[in-house]
Amino acid sequence: MSNRLSLLLLPLLIAYSGCHGACSPAPAKPPHLPGCDDLKVEGVSSKSGCPSASCGTNSAVINGFPFNGLNTAGCVNADSEALIPSSFKPWKDRCNQDGLHLAVSTKDDASELVAEPNGGGTPCQGAELAGASFQVWTPKGKVTLVISHVAKVSIEGTTSERYVYLFTSLEDPKTSVCTSKLSSKAYGATGAIDGVLAADPHSTPVATPFEDKLIDLAEYAVIIPGPVFDQTAKEINGSEAKGWFNIACTGDALGKTEMSGILDTAVTEEKWKNRKTRRGTALRMFSARYDRDLKPATIRGIPFGWSAWGRRSKDWQEAQKLEAKWDENGAMCLDHSRLWMKNRVVPRLELGEKGKKLITTSTPNEHDFIGSILPGKPCGPEPDDTPTTYVIDHVTDPDHPVRQ
Questions:
Q1: CA-CA distance, 120 to 99, in Å (whole number)?
Q2: What ranges do the domains of the chain cover?
Q3: Chain segment 346-356, per-residue pLDDT in tens
Q4: What is d(CA 309, CA 319) in angstroms, rounded to the nearest whole number?
């Protein structure tokens, strides 16, 4: 699993009927449950190699949350990790019901965590989930996560809102897992459920939930239903099935596809289908993954503007020149790179090999850099309805004209 420090138990468990003590996981390996199509990923890790704090706002990381895709029925993800459906424990007398399991509720394209009674009834949701905990099986052992804070925030440029969750670990209940690595101390024994989770849920709580206002949005995560994506922005086969969901750090590319409002389009019969297929395109836009076989060409803090599917970013007016036009495979054409900015040093990035040639930003100029990625593919002079990104505070190389 990816190394991430704080993890707070996320209420996303659906109890698997008929799976109690008889199918407890084997040591250091989550069980395969009947009815589950476990995920597999070929040739590339499904996860980020580093936390959001160091890897991207605009964003080189698809999703830096420690667990890339969970399933409410306890199915195993592509990294051999699984939610433990029976481990949800509420904070004190919140959600004061026995036999709760975590689920994901989606309404009007907004998804949230809920704790549903096993026998049916009114679910526990929203701020009531603050302080709750749950566990995830990993190859290293179990990890206990806590939801330290729950807030509702508006989506940029829309009337939509989303619940966001501050997840922390049992060992460090005031540090977000979206900005810190997971300590080795967070991995518990692989046998019986550890510590307070095995005790009376109404006794001493796991951690005191924050009761104040939203801290820093980058510390939080948002719930996005499947499919699950690997770190190349490729959809993981089988992850669109029922029960799969993402816990997406809002500062990473996947979280930004939700929080930016880029997918909040007018209602049509094809809206839900379009929303899922368009997310892959948006992921490549936000992570500057111009070529699907190359690494992202951006770093944290680099701004850009966008227009897509009838919507525009709030800083679109600041955009000076067209960067690229996009589809689900990456950039269809490329005129500029968002890395070439006024008063900034272009960082050295190695994007990988193309045609047996290593592509890096350490070229004499931007013209040569974009030519090494998409030679002979300049964009048209005027934007159209195609998803498009724009550079901000751009600097043109003095010795080389920009392709027109």
A1: 10
A2: 21-258, 288-391
A3: 888 999 998 88
A4: 18
